Amino acid sequence: MNEKTKIKSIGVLCSGGDSPGMNCAIRAVVRTGVGLGLNIYGIRRGFQGILEGDIVKMDASSVGNIIQHGGTILKTSRCLDFYDPATRKEAFNILKRKKIDALVVIGGDGSFNGAYRLHEEHGIPIAGIPGTIDNDITGTDYTVGFDTAVQTAVEAVDKIRDTASSHARTFIVEVMGRQSSAIALHVGVCTGAENIILPSKDRQDLNIEQISADINRGIARGKNSSIIIAAEGETPGLCHRVQKELMSEYNLQAHICILGHIQRGGNPSSLDRFLASRMGYIAIDSLVSGLKCFATCFIQGEVNPTPLEGCLEKRVEYRPYYEELAKKLSI
Ligand code: F6P
Predict the structure, then answer these.
(1) pLDDT band at 93 (very low <50, low <70, confident <90, very high)
(2) For residue 3, pLDDT beyond 70
(3) For residue 268, which of 21, 125, 174, 257 is within the disulfide window of CB 3.0 to 4.6 Å?
(4) CA nearest to 46, candidates 24, 20, 79
(5) 182 in ligand 1 pocket by Cβ < 6 Å?
(6) DSSP letter string over 215-264?
(7) Which CATH class is domain 147-265?
(8) In the chain, where are the structural domains located?
(9) The ligand 1 atom nearest the CA atom of 263
(10) What CATH architecture applies to the domain 9-145+268-311?
(11) Is the CB of 132 under 6 A from ligand 1?
(12) Global confidence as pTM
């Protein structure tokens, strides 16, 4: 048992969309916990796994050879039932029966909200590790998986640029982010995109005239290809609408490429591995030091535990500055 707290056993789960680096975080949680003499339990498929008692004891070798792999060995799910207080009570009772004293939740803002309520209602200590490709959690500059997802999309757009330029074509490339602009903005800047369409423009104020003017300006100065990065947004089909209107209104032909879930997979980048390792360590260290409800946040180059309450909102990364930057550099 830990000297400072009564914590003997900690459960760890992943929840929501998976993100590259989750395995590194699990590894860090398990190895730090085992190193301190704690019992660490892996909970499969997120909050759903608590309800189904899908819980396994982990040791140092359970997390061997996973640091480089995308996805999550614990699997994940979006457990909508967890919005119900009665379900959370049931989950708490199961954890109590299994003698799990605290929980590490690796996931996004939805998962953090569920975990926060579980703590508020039943007092179980919670550590949140920000894990989502969307980079949209308030209180942390980066979430585990974002860097890898951006790199994956950038590599894909580079390839599209090769063929776009060979054939003198315009491409609309859809990246992930239903509500988050972060991937679109970063990929747009890093690939020299001529236009970036953000979910916030979903889509009443979508300015096709401006997009066509930008393409034509490029053509006039000798550019033969254009890339438009579009965040998927909440309403599917945006790319097709833009494609259709560019053709019908401005006689401009555009091809579509939807990158989709490839952005969620793949080996985590070194930044994601580093962040996840640091966050996993700090999650356990802070729980045994007596912190009760926090997230491991990366702010100005440092990972520190900060109150989970401040990390429940979606961070809206609508930074006109990035959009402006991409525009200014792609004239
Ligand atoms: O996990 C975040 C995310 O990948 C978003 O970028 C995307 O909008 C959403 O999840 C897709 O979720 P699902 O895989 O459940 O369709």
Answers:
(1) very high
(2) no
(3) 21
(4) 79
(5) no
(6) HHHHHHTT---EEEEEE--SSTTHHHHHHHHHHHHH---EEEEE-GGGGG
(7) alpha beta
(8) 9-145+268-311, 147-265
(9) 4
(10) 3-Layer(aba) Sandwich (3.40)
(11) yes
(12) 0.96
